[in-house]
Amino acid sequence: MSTLEIGAVKLRKPLRLWPGVIAAVAIVLLRFAIPVIAPAMTPYGVIAGVLGGLVIALWWVFFSRAPWLERVVAIAAMLLAGLAAGLVVHHSIATGMMGFMLPVYALPITVGPAFVAWAVATRHRSGTVRLVTMVATIFAASLAWTLLRTEGVTGEGVAQLTWRWTPSAEEQLVAVPLIPAEPTPPPEEPKAPPAASPPAEAPVTAPPKGDATPKPVVARAAWTGFRGGARDAVVRGVRIATDWSAAPPAELWRRPVGPGWSSFAVAGDLFYTQEQRGENELVACYRLSTGEPVWVHRDAARFYESNGGPGPRGTPALGRGRVYTMGATGILNALDAKTGAVIWSRNAAADTGAPEPGWGFAGSPLVLDDKVIVAASGRLAAYTADRGDLLWTRKTQGGGYSSPQLVTIDGVVQIVLPSGGGITAVAPSDGSVLWENTWEPGTSIVQPAVVAGGLVFSGADMMGAVGLRRIAVVHSEAGWSVEERWTSRGLKPYFNDFVIHEGHAYGFDGSILASIDLASGERTWKGGRYGHGQMILLPEQDVLLVLSEDGELALVSATPDRFTEVAKFKAIEGKTWNHPAVAGDVLLVRNGEEMAAFRLARARR
Fold this sequence. Notes:
Layout: E1 3-6, E2 9-12, H1 18-37, H2 42-63, H3 68-88, H4 91-94, H5 101-121, H6 127-143, E3 148-153, E4 159-163, H7 169-174, E5 250-256, E6 265-267, E7 270-277, E8 280-287, E9 293-299, E10 304-305, E11 309-310, E12 317-319, E13 322-326, E14 331-336, E15 342-347, H8 348-352, E16 366-368, E17 371-376, E18 379-384, E19 390-395, E20 405-409, E21 412-419, E22 422-426, E23 433-438, E24 449-451, E25 454-459, E26 467-476, E27 479-488, E28 499-501, E29 504-509, E30 512-517, E31 523-529, E32 534-538, E33 543-547, E34 552-557, E35 565-570, E36 581-583, E37 586-590, E38 594-599
Antiparallel strand pairs: 1-2, 3-4, 5-38, 6-7, 7-8, 8-9, 10-11, 12-13, 13-14, 14-15, 16-17, 17-18, 18-19, 20-21, 21-22, 22-23, 24-25, 25-26, 26-27, 28-29, 29-30, 30-31, 32-33, 33-34, 34-35, 36-37, 37-38
Helix pairs in contact: 1-2, 1-5, 2-5, 3-5, 3-6, 5-6
């Protein structure tokens, strides 16, 4: 320890505080201030918090001039406080971000700055006072996290923190039964709830705005499953009024819904979705015109991970008078679409040998003629649609969260599935591999898109930084050949699907919309912050119907010259990752807390 000798008195040099102060200020700026202006910088702010915490520790041990007792006690207290916090924080924080939330995301941004503030405030105090207040500051900054829980993260990786003792939306919802029904509706004719009024314990549904009597809804076009019948999020034959100041979407109804990232399937006046309520995973059927429940099927299963929260990830598929669903733990059901009666049930995880992925099984079933084809973490499985007999399984190039996609290339019908290492095409009849294209390891989440003579598909790492690839696929007597046309970082979707229109791809580059030219892969524009949302294309009007991560609806021009927002409308509250659905002139939106239906005014001819 550096000292000055004056007679018999040793004068200690003052603490060197400036390195710690700079590190603490840098943590606050990079972790909190800058991401407010530039949300895409959030992951880098987290890294800055960790590095800043290490800098503060190194400063204190080697460059602070503090007494060695204080240096050693500080480091020991930080370790002990971190371990203690890990034992008592809410399980959502303890398991958050794959277990890294507390040590990487949380503790560095509270303990480091708080410790530096203590050092500055007590620099003139005696040794005993400093030791006691130092240990108290470190433990208080660490154990403060026991007061909080997280309801997941945003698309930018920001934890959605709330007080630990506040009930979640699911806990409030589970106290009110959806409808009084058996855990699984029986095959016989079920007893329908009275038509005149809902059961007394059913959630109250608000009447449509401006009219106490619901108007009939005519779904002129069915929406048979995930992203529509072709899984391309394209609505053809529909033209809507785009001047929302004069004719905004008219709310038909809204009601609470259990958590989950399912979308909708629609047929006539019925629609279907999946949700979690307590220890039961639900498939629920509602009336499109009123939002009232019709029937519910329950499976005793619950999936939870801290980032996305609880609930199923897949979307129901309609076909052959049935609704087919796959839950987040791999339960595959075939239910009667009118009554919810169980036709058959299997477990796709067990049938394929797929381990449960970190974010749950997210694939939506694909109904193809007399087969139902599902993807379970990069593995494909086909079942008979009528009885659920397993026909074949196929392991692809790695895990993933994409759904099987039906395409026709060179006149050959095939199932393609992006996975962790590329994309694989198989024959629907027996699952034999037709062709493959490999890519650098990543995460497959979004759906591929068909273009002339091939496909466009995405690969993504944790920050969605890999991009899109276009391939040409040709069938000849010698077999299949696959050629890469381009790989582009001009559009980098992570879990947000993209659409194809007039030679361009439109989608989310992180949290900002972008367009790229399909001929070259070059970006043509980027603009408009809608978080990590989803979209639908209305091709007759060259317009995108965008549902933002915050629950806003926006109309954006699907034109390659520039970004143009035509209109915007607040639809629902809360983090919204679910895909919207359109059936006729009705738009359905939902998230993990509520869902709503809107009538879209038709465009005047």
